[in-house]
Amino acid sequence: MDTVSYPHKEVIEFINSSLIPLRARSDAQPLATDFNLKWTPTLIILDTEGKEHHRTVGFLSPEELIPSLLLGIAKVHFDLNAFKEALSYMEKILSDFPKSSMAPEAIYLKGVCQYKDTKNPKGLKEAYEQLQAKYPENEWTKRAYPYRLL
Q1: Can you tell me the distance from the alpha carbon of 137 to that of 144, in angstroms, rounded to the nearest whole number?
Q2: b/e per residue 10-41 (b: at least 16 CB within 10 A)
Q3: Measured between alpha carbons, how far apart are the two ends of the chain, in Å?
Q4: How far out from the chain centre does Cα 37 lie?
Q5: What's the rounded Cα separation, in Å, for the pair 147 and 128?
Q6: Residue 3 — pLDDT band, cuts 50, 70, 90?
Q7: What Cα–Cα distance (Å) separates residue 2 from each residue in 7, 63, 133?
Q8: Considering the entire predicted model, what is its pTM?
Q9: Main-chain phi, psi angles of 97, to 5 degrees
Q10: d(Cα 89, Cα 112) in Å, to the nearest integer?
Q11: Contact assessment for residue 140 and residue 105, using Cβ atoms and an 8 Å cutoff
Q12: DSSP string spanning 49-69?
């Protein structure tokens, strides 16, 4: 990622404006043990308390790295019950990176956030319908399958 993704202008701008990056070798102790680092690159999104919310392992192109980081930030907000904030990050993934491999999970989590925020199951069913139409074989479509009954 050092030669392709990290030097990419948009990646640099995104990381500098949205995250507090920390780079550590996969064998650096105690981080390697504390965060179960087994391979490089491993990207972990933590909250302000140091709790992990999202992890990716392996190379990501710039076009996949930014949506992965956005998804990680969305998951922090989701896990902290800040559903409107989580929704804004998922909507950014879907509007700016609709072809990324993160889009199906963003659709799924968007439906879950809408439900958790409003208690209206409409968002869950819409998420399933959108996933079924765009990504019929995706794992997130399969996970959303029960929502078709709502």
Answers
A1: 12
A2: ebeebeeeeeeeeeeeeeeeeeeeebebeeeb
A3: 43
A4: 19
A5: 6
A6: confident
A7: 7, 15, 36
A8: 0.93
A9: -135, 55
A10: 14
A11: yes
A12: T--EEEEEES---HHHHHHHH
For the chain, the helix, strand and coil percentages under 3-state DSSP, each to the nearest 5: 55, 5, 35
pLDDT tens digits for range 18-40: 999 999 888 899 999 999 998 88
Instruction: Note the CATH architecture for domain 9-149.
Output: Alpha Horseshoe (1.25)
pLDDT at position 44 over 90:
yes
Inter-residue contact 93 to 102 (CB < 8 Å)? yes
Whole-angstrom distance, CA of residue 17 vs CA of residue 111: 27
Buried b (16+ CB within 10 A) or exposed e, 66-88: bbbbbbbbbbbbbeeeebeebbe
**Cβ proximity of 5 and 62 under 8 Å:** yes
Query: Encoding tokens for residue 130?
Result: 């959108």
| The two three-digit tokens of residue 113, written as one number | 């956030």
